[in-house]
Amino acid sequence: MLFVWREAFAGLRRNLTMSIAMVITTAISLGLLGAGLLAVRTIDRTEELYYSLIAVQVALDEPTSAGDPDCSGPVCTGLRDELEANPLVAGVEYESRDAAFERFQRIYAGQSILQLVRPQSLPATLRVTMADPLRGTEIVQQFTGRPGVRNVVDQRSTVQDLFSFLGSVRNATFGLAIVQALAALLLISNTIQLSAFTRRTEVGIMRLVGATRWYTQVPFLIEAVVTGLVGAVLATGGLVLGKLFFLDRLLSGRLLANTIPPVGMSDVLLYVGPVLVIVGAVIATLTGYVTLRLYVRT
Amino acid sequence: MIRLENVTKVYPTSTRPALDDVSVEVERGEFVFLIGPSGSGKSTLLRLLLREDVPNEGNVWVANWNVGRLASRRVPRLRQRMGVVFQDFRLLPNKTVAENVAFALEVIGKPRHTIRTVVPEVLDLVNLAGKADRMPSELSGGEAQRVAIARAFVNRPLVLLADEPTGNLDPETSTGIMTLLERINRTGTTVVMATHDRQIVDSMRRRVVELSSGKLARDDSRGVYGTGR
Ligand SMILES: Nc1ncnc2c1ncn2[C@@H]1O[C@H](COP(=O)(O)OP(=O)(O)O)[C@@H](O)[C@H]1O
Ligand SMILES: [Mg+2]
């Protein structure tokens, strides 16, 4: 048993350049796969976050916003009652012009945009939480153009752009991961063939003194699996660095803070890391096995 | 120990058989010279015994194995009970003398403590105890062949096959190799040695099996190389 390990590492050392290339390619493809998995995870979280927050906003027109701050007039109460009676609607909240302004001040505290906004430029709104967030457009259609209504906005359609952006990031990452995985596969296969070729004398002697096929081939398999594992560990390390020095900054920056939830270290180490180790080991083993079966006759 | 029954071997690339209806039997513990000019089929016969190839016709028996019909997964077992040395030694250049010998035991999964005791013993037997840590490139031809013999013998094979083991050596060194093979034969190991070295065969007076163009030409129990050559 010791023997086959020694042989495997001797093999990795002998073709050091190839081994390094093989490890790097594997690491890159697994890293991309990992990034894709993180993207999926983040998208799921973001969606969850948003669907609990998003609503359909029914903005009231200027006379109603200015003249009925408590939503006690017939126009405002009529709209509210009708919304509350609608089976698609889970709840309705009234937000007056002043309340909207206060919230606005809170969100943009210390930012120059505050200077530009007066309470008069904000409408009073009825915030409609949907029983089914996917059917907001029906409310939009029903209430657009009604008396007292300035406009109706389904926040989901705004958020949709963000999701489709995240989705395409994910798809691109997976696409690259697949291309890279293919390169890694070919490289592993090629390295095993090369390794088997450089060691043909040795393997010939092994066979002659009665080594089983298992004994002659397991070192090559170990070479492949070690490559896969080292690649997976490097990929996970790369993702940790990427998280610390890129994602964390990006997601806490002004642009995306509170828009996309941060990626946790546990996502990288406890979820993606193990997946990459398993995928790396399995793919390397299969590649090694198939290569030995098809190309290496010993 | 070894029995060939009407064995014919034709290589796919040639029309003339390399072995043509050869029947021969070797008892346990015998020492047999397999002689004949180049191309007469000596190596082919040894290859069949090792199951490096299979005969087209006839049966090859070694101990209780029907070698030609052996399932390929059983071949390692057969080879573990046979030792083989070649004209070109076939040592691993990147391993020391001791490692080359140990290799034969490692690859068949022998435990390490066994290897640690057995390897020095066999190196002692071939008079190379002092050179255990040398690399093959630092050895003379005779020494390299003794390492190869040590490797072939270390697992105490039933049969030792030698394919022109003295082919690359000068006469004096060859004598040393022959002494060693005789010593191994005296431990009860059957030895079959292919050679066309007339001097060695004549001096040893052992059984001689002669091949000529793949046919069995002669089988003398205490033979010489032959007349008129
Ligand atoms: N692998 C092979 N393929 C085709 N022909 C072979 C092969 N090996 C040996 N031969 C032929 O078989 C015959 C016997 O060869 P061999 O057994 O090597 O003879 P020897 O060892 O007595 O010199 C020769 O004619 C040789 O050319
Ligand atoms: Mg020959």
Automatic annotation (TrEMBL), chain A:
<keyword id="KW-0472">Membrane</keyword>
<dbReference type="InterPro" id="IPR047929">
    <property type="entry name" value="FtsX_actino"/>
</dbReference>
<feature type="transmembrane region" description="Helical">
    <location>
        <begin position="218"/>
        <end position="247"/>
    </location>
</feature>
<dbReference type="GO" id="GO:0051301">
    <property type="term" value="P:cell division"/>
</dbReference>
<comment type="similarity">
    <text>Belongs to the ABC-4 integral membrane protein family. FtsX subfamily.</text>
</comment>
<keyword id="KW-1003">Cell membrane</keyword>
<comment type="function">
    <text>Part of the ABC transporter FtsEX involved in cellular division.</text>
</comment>
<protein>
    <recommendedName>
        <fullName>Cell division protein FtsX</fullName>
    </recommendedName>
</protein>
<dbReference type="Pfam" id="PF18075">
    <property type="entry name" value="FtsX_ECD"/>
</dbReference>
<keyword id="KW-1133">Transmembrane helix</keyword>
<dbReference type="InterPro" id="IPR003838">
    <property type="entry name" value="ABC3_permease_C"/>
</dbReference>
<keyword id="KW-0132">Cell division</keyword>
<dbReference type="InterPro" id="IPR004513">
    <property type="entry name" value="FtsX"/>
</dbReference>
<feature type="domain" description="ABC3 transporter permease C-terminal">
    <location>
        <begin position="176"/>
        <end position="285"/>
    </location>
</feature>
<feature type="transmembrane region" description="Helical">
    <location>
        <begin position="174"/>
        <end position="198"/>
    </location>
</feature>
<dbReference type="InterPro" id="IPR040690">
    <property type="entry name" value="FtsX_ECD"/>
</dbReference>
<keyword id="KW-0131">Cell cycle</keyword>
<comment type="subunit">
    <text>Forms a membrane-associated complex with FtsE.</text>
</comment>
<dbReference type="GO" id="GO:0005886">
    <property type="term" value="C:plasma membrane"/>
</dbReference>
<keyword id="KW-0812">Transmembrane</keyword>
<dbReference type="Pfam" id="PF02687">
    <property type="entry name" value="FtsX"/>
</dbReference>
<feature type="transmembrane region" description="Helical">
    <location>
        <begin position="268"/>
        <end position="292"/>
    </location>
</feature>
From TrEMBL, chain B:
<dbReference type="InterPro" id="IPR017871">
    <property type="entry name" value="ABC_transporter-like_CS"/>
</dbReference>
<protein>
    <recommendedName>
        <fullName>Cell division ATP-binding protein FtsE</fullName>
    </recommendedName>
</protein>
<comment type="subunit">
    <text>Homodimer. Forms a membrane-associated complex with FtsX.</text>
</comment>
<dbReference type="InterPro" id="IPR003439">
    <property type="entry name" value="ABC_transporter-like_ATP-bd"/>
</dbReference>
<keyword id="KW-0547">Nucleotide-binding</keyword>
<dbReference type="GO" id="GO:0016887">
    <property type="term" value="F:ATP hydrolysis activity"/>
</dbReference>
<keyword id="KW-0472">Membrane</keyword>
<keyword id="KW-0132">Cell division</keyword>
<dbReference type="GO" id="GO:0051301">
    <property type="term" value="P:cell division"/>
</dbReference>
<dbReference type="GO" id="GO:0005886">
    <property type="term" value="C:plasma membrane"/>
</dbReference>
<dbReference type="InterPro" id="IPR005286">
    <property type="entry name" value="Cell_div_FtsE"/>
</dbReference>
<feature type="domain" description="ABC transporter">
    <location>
        <begin position="2"/>
        <end position="228"/>
    </location>
</feature>
<dbReference type="Pfam" id="PF00005">
    <property type="entry name" value="ABC_tran"/>
</dbReference>
<keyword id="KW-0131">Cell cycle</keyword>
<dbReference type="InterPro" id="IPR003593">
    <property type="entry name" value="AAA+_ATPase"/>
</dbReference>
<comment type="function">
    <text>Part of the ABC transporter FtsEX involved in cellular division. Has ATPase activity.</text>
</comment>
<dbReference type="GO" id="GO:0005524">
    <property type="term" value="F:ATP binding"/>
</dbReference>
<comment type="similarity">
    <text>Belongs to the ABC transporter superfamily.</text>
</comment>
<keyword id="KW-0067">ATP-binding</keyword>
<keyword id="KW-1003">Cell membrane</keyword>
<dbReference type="InterPro" id="IPR015854">
    <property type="entry name" value="ABC_transpr_LolD-like"/>
</dbReference>
<dbReference type="InterPro" id="IPR027417">
    <property type="entry name" value="P-loop_NTPase"/>
</dbReference>
